[in-house]
Amino acid sequence: MDKVVPAARAVLVPTAGLLYTIPSIALFIVLPGILGTRILDPINVIVALTIYTVALLVRSVADALAAVPRMVVAAATAMGFGAGRRFVEVELPLSVPVLIAGLRVATVSNISLVSVGALIGVGGLGGLFTDGYQRDFPTEILTGVVLIVVLALAADAVLLGIGRLATPWQRRGTGARR
Fold it and tell me: Which of 5, 81, 102, 157 is most enclosed, with most CB atoms within 10 A?
């Protein structure tokens, strides 16, 4: 198993990075040919955003699991933890801070990218950009920008809170850190 993980990482991380480099508007245009959908079908945006999110999360998960100190994993193994139990009780909890950080980046990226869907006719907050631009109405554009920023900040704050709840050992002032 120890040889499989580096091999999988060597393939998955660069592949995910390559997928993330595809420009979103190009992906929105190509997906209907691959999926057999209409170009204005919202499923194209959903699939594209899923591809981008998975691409970001592959690296985050790989980095999170690599951040767990090998000595801790070795100690858990020496204490008799099997691979499954070691993963659930040791590696996963210790990787939560990096996982949450990656999830925060993916979430904020996804929120910003969804506005690009308006360029192919799929509404959402991006519709405020295109409509405001077409009608030369800057207030509508500014409203779209502000709403997207507020939504991204709110989602980021929720994930940050979840991360803090999931990692009580990292909070300041707890018994272990006094």
Answer: 102
- Specify whether the CB–CB gap between 81 and 90 falls below 8 A: yes
Q: pLDDT (tens digit, 9 = 90+) per residue, 104-155?
A: 999 999 998 888 888 777 778 888 888 888 899 999 999 999 999 999 999 9
Rounded-to-integer distance, Cα 31 and Cα 52, Å = 13
CA distances, 60 to each of 53, 64, 120, 151 (Å): 11, 6, 30, 22
Question: Residues 115, 163: contact at Cβ < 8 Å?
Answer: no
Q: Amino acid identity, residue 163?
A: G
* Amino acid identity at 16: A
Among 109, 114, 96, which residue's Cα sits nearest to residue 160? 96
Cα dihedral: 35, 41, 44, 49 (round 10) = -160
State pTM to two decimals: 0.81
Tell me the one-letter amino acid at 86.
Answer: R
